[in-house]
Fold Nudix hydrolase.
Amino acid sequence: MPETPSEEEWFDIVDEHDQVLRSAPRSEVHGEGHLHRATHIWVINSAGKLLIHLRAAGKEEEPLKWTSSASGHVSAGEAYSVSAARELSEELGIEAQLTRWHKIMSGPETGYEHTELYACQSDAVPIPDPNEISEIQYLDFAEIYEWLDREPTAFTHPFRAFLRWSQENSDKIVFD
């Protein structure tokens, strides 16, 4: 069901250095192409496999593409870390200790969103939100990298950028 104007999400509009300029409704932020913020969360199980999901067909951006375990916009006035925990809970029903791993500044590969990547180790059983997620699967990083090389367009732009970063920086992938 479409959101009414009073229910529409509000995001912070930021500059190229990720400094807040003002807040605006989602429709304005996306409609006018303003820079804003997002988070991606990787859930890695005890076997070292990454949980990925296929975005629901009804998603506004990149429907039916594979992406991070959870992801979403940072709401106006919200910290990246709070957004990451909220998205993980809303999309997968998982509560976990998150570690910030990386930040990609806005650009075409992130949909003009400054995007922070968080990760957690968890064997919790995910409960996917069907409005957000069509399918989930756990894969070894090597399997995901091979798939990325074969079929990059199967993945969302930000997820591709984070996967490439993780390939080049595997030594930095540690938990607090």
